[in-house]
């Protein structure tokens, strides 16, 4: 007789049939067919080379070996169910920690945090600022909110939220010199960019028909900042023309502190929620749905 454990599905079918005294009821509980439960029980009897049930009229009763197996299997499944329930409660009760780029956090998410907490109270959201994409090995982060382009990382569940749009923006004094002029007028100004998104200006320039080499020379003569936050502060201070995601500067555009003389273009990047391994998908979907609604809701 083999000493290895029989298949878990066979033990599960046996435990349900033994507890309920019916293959039909076991099949209903397990959401499988009557035949599937019967096959699992026969496989278990073949494994042990003994009968586990005996017929009693139209019902089933456990044989002596069946009663012996049931005692241990029932106890084991009781412990398993309790462990699974405890783990589920622990996961559901754990706070959802969201890592978010500092500029997006400060300029877009923080003004909406109070509403988010009110409308998704079960999420128990904590937010922290992140520079770049968080280390997927960190176990204190449930998800990261970031602009990323395909291919998606293989170590995360990725939920797309919205397309990224970027544009050339400047303080009103500079924008006044540019509005109504051809896009090449941009090259007369100081170009500002961030080291974290070197592809942003080329993407926007290609969409707007700016000659690539001329834009490259202008960028080389311009100024680069380590973080988007400093880039935007430089643009607000009137130091030049910056390239930025529309979402991050939405408030500055509405207030008139920044102006986009030639509008915005869509890139291949997407605003995505990247779930860490072990983060419940339904929690991420709930947050993603809320973010999508905020992005489309009227101001």
UniProtKB/TrEMBL annotation:
A Pfam family matched in the record: HTH_1
Top-level taxonomic group: Bacteria
Keywords: DNA-binding, Transcription, Transcription regulation
Name used for this protein in its record: DNA-binding transcriptional regulator, LysR family
GO molecular function: DNA-binding transcription factor activity; sequence-specific DNA binding
Keyword Repressor in annotation: no
Domain HTH lysR-type: 6-63
Gene Ontology biological process terms in this record: DNA-templated transcription
Organism: Kushneria avicenniae
Keyword DNA-binding (UniProt): yes
Family of this protein: Belongs to the LysR transcriptional regulatory family.
């Amino acid at each position: 007789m083999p000493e290895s454990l029989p298949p878990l599905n066979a033990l599960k079918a046996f435990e349900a049939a033994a507890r309920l005294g019916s293959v039909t009821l076991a099949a209903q509980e397990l959401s499988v067919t009557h035949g599937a439960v019967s096959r699992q029980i026969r496989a278990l009897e073949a494994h042990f080379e003994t009968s586990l049930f005996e017929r009693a009229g139209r019902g089933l009763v456990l044989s002596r070996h069946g009663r012996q197996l049931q005692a241990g299997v029932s106890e084991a499944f009781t412990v398993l169910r309790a462990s699974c329930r405890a783990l589920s409660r622990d996961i559901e009760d754990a706070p959802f920690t969201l890592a978010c780029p500092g500029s997006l956090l400060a300029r877009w998410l923080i003004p909406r945090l109070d509403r988010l907490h009110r409308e998704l109270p079960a999420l128990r959201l904590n937010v922290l600022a992140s520079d770049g994409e968080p280390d997927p090995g960190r176990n204190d982060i449930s998800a990261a909110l970031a602009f990323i382009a395909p291919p998606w990382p293989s170590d995360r569940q990725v939920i797309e939220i919205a397309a990224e749009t970027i544009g050339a923006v400047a303080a009103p004094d500079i924008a006044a010199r540019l509005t109504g002029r051809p896009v090449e007028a941009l090259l007369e100004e100081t170009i500002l960019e961030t080291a974290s998104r070197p592809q942003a200006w080329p993407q926007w320039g290609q969409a707007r028909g700016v000659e690539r080499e001329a834009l490259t020379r202008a960028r080389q003569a311009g100024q680069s900042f380590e973080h988007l936050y400093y880039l935007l502060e430089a643009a607000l201070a009137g130091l030049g023309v910056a390239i930025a995601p529309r979402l991050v500067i939405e408030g500055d555009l509405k207030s008139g502190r920044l102006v986009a003389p030639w509008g915005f273009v869509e890139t291949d990047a997407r605003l995505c929620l990247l779930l860490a391994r072990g983060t419940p998908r339904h929690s991420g979907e709930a947050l993603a749905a809320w973010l999508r609604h905020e992005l489309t809701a009227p101001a």
